[in-house]
């Protein structure tokens, strides 16, 4: 039975797509090799491997359950035939090795084909075992377990460009790990106040710079982003750059802070920009300009007048993610009613699409959707009050090279591709 | 707030003005009603936490910040004291809130939720502290008496509920508290000791340390020997044997205040009256 998907991530080549769910399972999809015979068919994604990454645990000291829900998956760059990924729940990060086995050795001397040991007295000749093909078996094995380093809930993990270290961030602290060392990590950011009563801000997301292995950013619940340089100090409590857009006084309300809270931060592939997602918009920042973003895209501005209801039903705390396409020319993020939005940075055009079974048959073109914000509702438009706020698209991913996207709609995964002409 | 059932008279000159002021008052009251309902909603959200799984810290912080924002605005409006009175007098919902706070505090350890909720108590405390500083340094505080009364009571109400919550917490998790609790209390004590001698010096002139015992602590103890020193007993605080409420940094300042402030500040809490106040609050909660 499918569980609610909590994270989606393509690997570096785009050949593999990993999803994590609320039940602690990881499901990996692999793209079919493109068949030269069927020119019109692009590789489809099929299930490659499924494994249980995390189990529910109980913290006896606090008398609290630790959820097995996978918060984040991040792939490591491929260095040999096996694939490696990091998966994290609230407290523990695990490094998994996914390897294929499509051959097995036959003709052992000391055991027969069933695996039973042969009677040594019966062995009269020596033979060399031969590798014979077998049905493909994909095995996932945990290679490292990075535990006990987070008091608060892990919200982000990010592999460094040195491919040796990675960071993990919880609400108040960020730790730097070496992939080979599990029994200790370096704490590089700590925003926990001496007196917890003074806590007013938490870390919401963190990411390593794609090329500069000494640089990382972290976002906060107050809508700010701090860029830190690990060369400056062992503890990066003092930022090198501080990104914050001044507040628009005319739109100030009791909800201003909540909707400014950043739910996701992603560097562009080029490393020159970063993108942040707050409740109503997506902002693109130039790393060289701290005082305001260079681009702002409204995701669902029509919700601004509904903030009180969204606060009441807790939807205002939903954490939407965002992603870049491979060339950084487009960005994508999710919304409600199973809608997701894509913005072209060059043409400034945007589109709203829906991920739902009823409205899309396989291989059919997705129809653009529109939300009616007031006045007369046109045909095919949907009014704000008819939106289903239980159908939220929080997790989306874009293939690193092609126009293939993965959209997680509650417990369904949708994969869309560009139409080939 | 305008009274209900006032009949408007149809008269030319006055009508427009009263219309406007009526509309204005209605808008204002609808805003304050909305604000109040937002405050209520936020408090309920803070209280209704999943008891089995740790609640989302980000969400809790954002809600607590919203509550603080509303409180600040209401304080500026002057409407906060009405809410505070509602809290402190007998009533169904305020006591429920107090009880719920205890429930909230009980199931957590030191680092988690209750401290967030006590952010609200921090507000009340801060007001007390400001007054205490003034009384330490200045002479007349007549204007602030009423504010002190009410501010003191707000802080107490929130704080008492949090205190009893923390008490229960400490009983349950004595060992884990010891480590950090120790640091907290020592810092507090040091801070209080080092801060006060300067102002005391101003008021009383220089004094000699007779016993030559370590630090200004003993000098303070001599000066305030009439104060119940069990509250200053580090051991009492450290072992978590809570017959007395836990002392936060502002409590100590408050306790020092009465010794050399004008007697009109009766309602500024001091150690000995704390227990009386606590009894009073318990009476309200129990509903006797």
UniProtKB/TrEMBL annotation, chain A:
Family: Belongs to the phosphatase 2A regulatory subunit B family.
GO MF terms, alphabetically ordered: protein phosphatase regulator activity
GO cellular component: protein phosphatase type 2A complex
Subunit text: PP2A consists of a common heterodimeric core enzyme, composed of a 36 kDa catalytic subunit (subunit C) and a 65 kDa constant regulatory subunit (PR65 or subunit A), that associates with a variety of regulatory subunits.
SMART domains: WD40
Upper classification of the organism: Eukaryota, Metazoa, Chordata, Craniata, Vertebrata
Keywords carried by this UniProt record: Repeat, WD repeat
Gene3D superfamilies noted in UniProt: YVTN repeat-like/Quinoprotein amine dehydrogenase
Top-rank taxon: Eukaryota
Protein name: Serine/threonine-protein phosphatase 2A 55 kDa regulatory subunit B
PROSITE patterns the record matches: PR55_1, PR55_2
TrEMBL record, chain B:
GO process terms (BP): cell division
Entry annotated with the keyword Cell cycle: yes
Region of interest: Disordered: 165-197
Domain of life from the UniProt record: Eukaryota
Species of origin: Cyprinus carpio
One of the record's GO cellular component terms: nucleus
Keywords: Cell cycle, Cell division
SERTA domain mapped to chain residues: 31-78
Name under which the protein is recorded: Cell division cycle-associated protein 4 isoform X2
């Amino acid at each position: 039975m499918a569980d609610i998907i909590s994270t989606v991530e393509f690997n570096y080549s785009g050949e593999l797509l990993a999803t994590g769910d609320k039940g602690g399972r990881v499901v990996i999809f692999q793209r079919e090799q493109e068949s030269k015979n069927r020119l019109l068919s692009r590789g489809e994604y099929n299930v490659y491997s499924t494994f249980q990454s995390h189990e529910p645990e109980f913290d006896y000291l606090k008398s609290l359950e630790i959820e097995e829900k996978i918060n984040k998956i991040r792939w490591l760059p491929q260095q040999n035939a096996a694939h490696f990924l990091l998966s994290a729940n609230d407290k523990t990060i695990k490094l998994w090795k996914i390897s294929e086995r499509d051959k097995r050795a036959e003709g052992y001397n000391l055991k027969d084909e069933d695996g039973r040991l042969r009677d040594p007295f019966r062995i009269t000749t020596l033979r060399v075992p031969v590798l014979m093909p077998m049905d493909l078996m994909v095995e996932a094995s945990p290679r490292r377990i990075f535990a006990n380093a987070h008091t608060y809930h892990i919200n982000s993990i990010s592999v460094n460009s040195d491919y040796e270290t990675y960071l993990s961030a919880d609400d108040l602290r960020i730790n730097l790990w070496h992939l080979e060392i599990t029994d200790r990590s370096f704490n590089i950011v700590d925003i926990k106040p001496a007196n917890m009563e003074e806590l007013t801000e938490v870390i919401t997301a963190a990411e390593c710079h794609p090329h500069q292995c000494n640089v990382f950013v972290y976002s906060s619940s107050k809508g700010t982003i701090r860029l830190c340089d690990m060369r400056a100090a062992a503890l990066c409590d003092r930022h090198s750059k501080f990104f914050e857009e001044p507040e628009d006084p005319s739109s100030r309300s009791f909800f201003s802070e909540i909707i400014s809270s950043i739910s996701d931060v992603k560097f562009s592939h080029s490393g020159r920009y970063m993108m942040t997602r707050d409740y109503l918009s997506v902002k693109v920042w130039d790393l060289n300009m701290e005082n305001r973003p260079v681009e702002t895209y409204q995701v669902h501005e029509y919700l601004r007048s509904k903030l009180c209801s969204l606060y009441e039903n807790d939807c205002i705390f939903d954490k939407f993610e965002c992603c870049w396409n491979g060339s950084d020319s487009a960005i994508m993020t999710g919304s409600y009613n199973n809608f997701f939005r894509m913005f072209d940075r060059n043409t400034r055009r945007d589109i709203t699409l829906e991920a739902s079974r009823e409205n899309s048959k396989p291989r059919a073109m997705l129809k653009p959707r529109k939300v009616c914000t007031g006045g007369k509702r046109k045909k095919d438009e949907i009014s704000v009050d008819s939106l289903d706020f239980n159908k939220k698209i929080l997790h989306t991913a874009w293939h690193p090279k092609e126009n293939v996207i993965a959209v997680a709609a509650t417990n369904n995964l949708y994969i869309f591709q560009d139409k080939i002409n | 707030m305008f009274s209900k059932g006032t009949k408007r008279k149809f008269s030319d000159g006055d009508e427009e003005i009263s219309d406007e002021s009526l509309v204005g008052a209605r808008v204002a009251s609808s805003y304050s009603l909305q604000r109040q309902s937002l405050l209520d909603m936020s408090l309920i959200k803070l209280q209704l936490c999943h008891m089995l799984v740790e609640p989302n810290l980000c969400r809790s912080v954002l809600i607590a910040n919203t509550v603080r924002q509303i409180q600040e605005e209401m304080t500026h409006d002057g409407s906060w004291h009405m809410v505070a009175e509602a809290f402190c007098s007998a009533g169904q919902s305020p006591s429920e809130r107090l009880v719920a706070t205890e429930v909230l505090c009980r199931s957590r350890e030191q680092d988690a939720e209750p401290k967030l909720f006590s952010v609200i108590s921090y507000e009340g405390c801060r007001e007390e502290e400001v007054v205490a500083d003034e009384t330490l340094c200045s002479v007349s505080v007549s204007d602030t008496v009423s504010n002190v009364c009410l501010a003191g009571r707000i802080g107490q109400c929130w704080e008492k509920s949090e205190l009893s919550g923390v008490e229960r917490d400490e009983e349950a998790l004595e060992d884990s508290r010891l480590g950090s609790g120790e640091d907290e209390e020592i810092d507090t004590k040091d801070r209080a000791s080092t801060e006060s001698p300067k102002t005391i010096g101003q008021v009383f002139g220089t004094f000699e340390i007779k016993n030559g015992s370590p630090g200004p602590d003993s000098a303070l103890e001599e000066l305030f020997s009439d104060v119940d020193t069990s509250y200053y007993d580090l051991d009492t605080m450290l072992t978590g044997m809570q017959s007395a409420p836990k002392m936060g940094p502002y409590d100590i300042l408050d306790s020092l205040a009465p010794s050399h402030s004008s007697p009109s500040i009766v309602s500024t809490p001091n150690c000995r009256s704390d227990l009386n106040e606590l009894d009073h609050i318990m009476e309200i909660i129990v509903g006797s």
